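Our working data are protein records whose layout never changes between entries. The record below serves as our worked example for the rest of this section:
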Amino acid sequence: MIVDIKKPFRLCLAANKENEGVMHPDAHLLCYRIRLSPGQEPFRGPAGPVFINDQFQQDGYDVNHLREPVRSLGGAVNEVD
């Protein structure tokens, strides 16, 4: 899948959840709006829900749009592996 990266739209900063401390206080995630490049097949997502089970919740989500988070460290922006 080839996409065109557009403008940033959400910044997620490190947080101190329930006084547990912050392991990487300078690590941030920055999400960008993206569009499929011309000639690419439309993104349809998986047939069923994507399940998430973490320290916050257990739930299933329908994935029907694209977002591209990238890690931002000390002002530099790097692609997430």
User: Anything to note?
Assistant: The radius of gyration is 16 Å. Residues 3-16+23-38+50-79 form one domain. Confidence is low (pLDDT under 50) at residues 76-81.
